[in-house]
Design a protein that fits this description.
The protein is an alpha/beta fold. Helix 6 crosses helix 8 and helix 8 packs antiparallel against helix 9. The structure holds beta(2-thienyl)alanine and fe (ii) ion (FE2).
Length: 324
């Protein structure tokens, strides 16, 4: 791919991927919060659980662009965790999830990809999403840096963990796991307007300064992970994956214990969050299209890059253009 050889206009610009195969150097990157979380999550003290996680992580670390995502045979314990969360969340989604989520969820069930009995396979869900919005899934060992994680979105690639949360921690876990990826993120990536919003966060993250990466990851957090939206005739609904995969978080968002603000990228960019605690503030978007327009304006005014880039949807590559 010719754009991979594009040289950066200034040595101060962090390296960034120009096409999907460039992501191969990301997938084994050192986890950002891995060690900190060791002591936090309950499964850390369960040796069999840790062994199983390492086994699944190995698959992700060997994955390269273009390969099918290996199937995992989940054991009885893992399937029981999926089932408990699937049934609990499904009963809440009708009242709290946005229409786009519910519509995609229904299709996933009709196509036999989502069912309570077994954990869906990333490969099958990835193929489904590719046909709906061009998004595909890519296995990852755990948390990446915010930069690496967001960069992939520019290419409509979403990093997914394949291991499952510990059975003692079903309704809230501080880490992403396959339940969060599938019950939270996957149905949303089937929607083209949502997919556009996610991709534009990704494009804004390419070659961004460290400071801007922090701001963009806050924006990501309060939209893709924990966003609420308005829906005609239904009031406020959830579209953020961290809400749709966690009973505790969803319940908190719709209680009066949390603050709801109209979505503002500028405001969200500097509102800190903690991955181990439930949120105290959520942002309500008018629509995905509206949020994308707000994001574009924010990026134009505040994302200080010394270059411009264009995305070629046909080849899935970005081209860097020097600022005149
Ligand atoms: N807290 C979520 C859950 O329990 O499903 C998982 C995550 C959301 C955001 C980051 S990890
Ligand atoms: Fe997530």
């Amino acid at each position: 791919m010719m754009s991979t050889s594009t040289t950066c206009p200034s040595s101060a610009i962090p390296w960034f991927p120009k096409c999907t195969t460039d992501l191969d150097s990301h997938s084994v990157a050192v986890l950002q919060f891995g060690e900190e979380l060791e002591s936090e999550y309950v499964g850390a003290n369960d040796p069999e659980y840790r062994r199983r996680r390492n086994e699944i992580a190995k698959i992700a670390s060997m994955y390269r662009t273009g390969q099918p995502i290996p199937y995992i045979e989940y054991n009885d314990n893992e399937r029981a965790t999926w089932k408990a969360l699937f049934c609990r969340m499904k009963s809440m989604h009708e009242d709290f999830a946005c229409t786009e989520y519910q519509d995609a969820f229904k299709v996933l069930e009709e196509e036999g990809l989502f069912a309570s009995d077994d954990v869906p396979q990333l490969e099958d869900v990835s193929n489904f999403l590719r046909s709906r919005s061009g998004f595909s899934l890519r296995p990852v060992t755990g948390l990446l840096t915010s930069r690496d994680f967001m960069n992939s979105l520019a290419f409509r690639v979403f990093y997914c963990t394949q291991y499952i949360r510990h059975h003692s921690n079903v309704f809230f876990t501080p880490e992403p796991d396959v339940c969060h990826e599938l019950l939270g993120h996957a149905p949303m990536f089937a929607d083209p307007d949502f997919a556009q919003l996610a991709q534009e966060i990704g494009l804004a993250s390419l070659g961004a300064s460290d400071e801007d990466i922090v701001k963009l990851s806050n924006i990501f957090w309060y939209t893709i992970e924990f966003g609420l939206c308005k829906e005609a005739g239904k009031g406020i609904r959830a579209y953020g994956a961290g809400l749709l995969s966690s009973f505790t978080e969803l319940e908190n968002a719709f209680s009066d214990r949390s603050e709801k603000r109209p979505f503002s990228p500028l405001d969200a960019a500097t509102l800190e969050h903690s991955i181990v605690d439930i949120n105290t503030t959520y942002y309500v978007a008018n629509s995905f299209e509206c949020a994308t327009n707000q994001l574009r304006e924010y990026v134009q005014q505040h994302n200080n890059r010394s270059f411009k880039l264009t995305y070629d949807a046909k080849t899935g590559t970005v081209n860097v253009i020097d600022k005149p």
